[in-house]
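Hey, quick one: can you model this chain's 3D structure?
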Amino acid sequence: MLDCPLPERCHLVTAELPSNTDQVKSETEDKRAHPRSKRDQIVAAAIKVFLENGYKATSMNRVADQAGVIKATIYSHFKDKEQLFIAIIEELTIKKIDLNYEDLEPLMVLPPEMFIDQVSNKFSVLMDDPDYLRLFRVMVGESERFPELASIYVKTVILRGMDLATAYFDRHPELNIADSAATAHICAGSFVSLMTWQQVLGGKKIRTLEVERVTKMLKALICNGAQYRGENN
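Sure thing. Here's the predicted structure for all 233 residues.
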């Protein structure tokens, strides 16, 4: 005879076997994870091909070969070349600086000096990133021949950043800023100009200008200037 009662044996067997619910949950999670990893694989391959060969030579066939997938797989994630390039640019810009456009409230409630520090810190990440600098060079070098490429960059990066800063300045009337969009341009333009002549054109080998100095003067212009503008209104 068996020493343990039948109910206990059933309990032991049940504990050793995974439930159907757990199996279904695991399979569902795997299916959800797989498309995302395949998409990342395609974007990584497209970045490599684009940075090495330029816009024109980055064909869907070439990206498929680099990614180790068939072309139909790329089209299952990106409807055309423009959508793929939006993903490339987002990967090399927005994701590099960890900026969540779906939730900008934490940025919007910062005091002005802290907001400028955040903008400066995020831009510094890009200035020191070799892949971003290569992207920027390609964008500038090929924008005349391929205006659609420049348009993708403007809409994906520049205008979104400008809109963010404009919305911030509009939300802070204590700064007494008469033209929020123009002020956003001054902020963005200061950092883009700095990167262009210091990093892209190699100006830092001739004369160095640190990001911290530009940040300090932007704070003086925007924050300290708020009191002057208020007194003269």
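One thing worth noting: The chain has a mean pLDDT of 85.
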